[in-house]
Design goal:
Strand order of the largest sheet: 25-24-22-30-29-28-27-26
Structural class: mainly beta
Radius of gyration: 22 Å
Distance between the termini: 19 Å
Pathway: Glycan metabolism; L-arabinan degradation
Strand content: 35-45%
Shape: globular
CATH topology of the largest domain: Tachylectin-2, Chain A
Largest sheet: 8 strands, antiparallel
GO biological process, one term: carbohydrate metabolic process
Pfam families: GH43_C (PF16369), Glyco_hydro_43 (PF04616)
CATH class of the largest domain: Mainly Beta
InterPro entries: Abn2_C (IPR032291), GH43_arabinanases (IPR050727), Glyco_hydro_43 (IPR006710), Glyco_hydro_beta-prop_sf (IPR023296)
Keywords: Glycosidase, Hydrolase
């Protein structure tokens, strides 16, 4: 147990100090309860809520948040269009309808696809540009198309092809992600393990490829499902002046997980926490890209598997990751998850271990953290479901993890710093340091309020914690 726990936390204790303020935490209110694995709603789209989501993207317009996604249906046949849902709180979702009733004819002829995949939308002026992909699993005879509308609720006008690929192409025309750079230029990232992830500049007037544009490779892995890469999404954080490329690794039916790299320019190069370039195929596949989310299970409660294909919502200074995940009780059921993104002091995104329920970062008291915690280390080399281990944070700054030598400190506001002892490490390097951000949250597994933390260690391994 000591060896396992030694890898859990990483923090620079010299930068940490105690905060003895006697503060209480402002927890989120109890969210509406949604019954999972509910067969009574599967035939009624208006009752799906967060059910039947795959490859979700999100955009806000006015007071509404809108999601669009790949059409899926538990126990049934998906239709040919693109589902639209909306929410005012990012928690409860209403059915709106679909973009298209079937796969557009030219996309169908090119790909023989029966459904549309992985849509994403962006607003230019008063017009929404909605991109989507048509393809079939296991082939790169693919097609990215465009629809436009004045409202996310339609009507939508078909605008035809944006880019397509064949079996001889070096790219795969799927998973479009339109994104503006810091100067207001429009780009689109797209692609998959057929050649990797590419980015290309777009024409804001037409929503299609800019004349004379060139494709740039920004991330890749070996061309196999076992080391796949797909689902790119780029977001700019002006605080750190960095672009962040989120991608999904591995098999969407087994070990899907989310990785990230960052760059100074939207066209890259994107590097992970350890400085590895996201196009480096000379390293082992799991050594490139900082893993920030994967399948997990807290205690003996039901968990989640295969989370991925995310988008990111930026609203003011708040960031949220929007993705699908499958319940481990029955992996045929895909649900929408939205989680708060917190940021490390040096500008790496840290994902909340719990789904969003209205929580906010805030200044906390050290005494709130004392007690038992369930901790999950997001092992970069194990992308199957990871289970939590228990530790205890003691009021005297010690950690009960079986070693008798691990310690923790609390830094002002909401930062916890841990120094974990590992007797198997070489002399002089027996300790692993980890820094995490703590936040009051809703415990969806135990249906109560709790504290959570999300952090990263000095070797780029992320960690999640939830207080018992």
């Amino acid at each position: 147990m000591a060896v396992i726990l030694a890898g859990l936390f990483i923090f620079n204790l010299t930068a940490c100090g105690d905060n003895e303020d006697n503060l209480s935490a402002a927890y989120p209110e109890e969210p509406p309860k949604e019954t999972l694995y509910d067969h009574s709603v599967t035939s009624d789209e208006t009752k799906w809520g967060s059910l039947n989501f795959h490859d979700p993207s999100i955009i806000k317009d006015g007071e509404w948040y809108y999601t669009i996604s790949t059409d899926v249906k538990v126990g049934g046949t998906p239709k040919g269009g693109i589902p639209i849902r909306k929410s005012k709180d990012l928690i409860s979702w209403e059915w709106v309808g679909r973009v298209f009733s079937k796969v557009p004819e030219d996309a169908r002829k090119w790909t023989r696809a029966r459904t549309l995949w992985a849509p994403d939308a962006i607003k230019t002026g008063d017009t929404f540009y909605l991109y989507y992909a048509a393809s079939r699993f296991g082939t790169n005879q693919s097609f990215i198309g465009l629809a436009t509308g004045k409202s996310m609720e339609g009507p939508w006008e078909y605008k035809g092809e944006v880019i397509k690929s064949t079996s001889s192409s070096i790219w795969n025309a799927i998973d479009p992600n339109p994104v503006y750079d810091a100067e207001g230029n429009l780009y689109m990232s797209f692609g998959s393990f057929f050649g990797g992830i590419f980015i290309v500049e777009m024409d804001t007037t037409t929503g299609k490829l800019k004349e004379g544009c060139k494709l740039s490779l920004i991330a890749t892995r070996s061309n196999s499902v076992a080391s796949a890469i797909e689902g790119p999404y780029i977001v700019y954080n002006p605080e750190y002046k960095k672009y962040y490329l989120f991608v999904s690794y591995d098999s969407l039916s087994k070990d899907y997980n989310v990785r990230v790299g960052r760059a100074d320019k939207i066209t890259g190069p994107y590097v992970d926490f350890n400085g590895n370039v996201m196009t480096d195929t000379g390293l082992p596949p799991n050594d490139v890209g900082t893993k920030i989310m994967g399948g997990y299970k807290f205690g003996r409660k039901d968990g989640w598997v295969m989370p991925g294909h995310n988008s990111v919502l930026k609203e003011g200074n708040d960031y949220f990751i929007v993705h699908h995940a499958r319940g481990d009780r029955d992996t045929n059921w895909p649900y929408l998850h939205i989680r708060k993104i917190l940021w490390s002091d040096d500008g790496w995104p840290l994902i909340s271990p719990e789904r969003y329920a209205g929580e906010k970062e805030q200044k906390l008291s050290k005494k709130l953290l004392v007690g038992d915690w369930e901790v999950i280390v997001l092992d970069k080399d194990n992308n199957l479901q990871l289970s939590s281990k228990k530790i205890t944070l003691k009021s005297n700054g010690k950690i009960d993890d079986g070693t008798g030598k691990s310690t923790w400190e609390f830094r002002a506001d909401n930062t916890i710093c841990m120094k974990l002892y590992d007797p198997d490490r070489k002399p002089g390097a027996e300790y692993i340091e980890q820094t995490s951000k703590v936040m009051p949250s809703w415990d969806w597994e135990n249906w109560r309020t709790t504290l959570v933390y999300t952090g990263i260690d000095n070797s780029g391994i992320c960690v999640w914690g939830k207080k018992d």
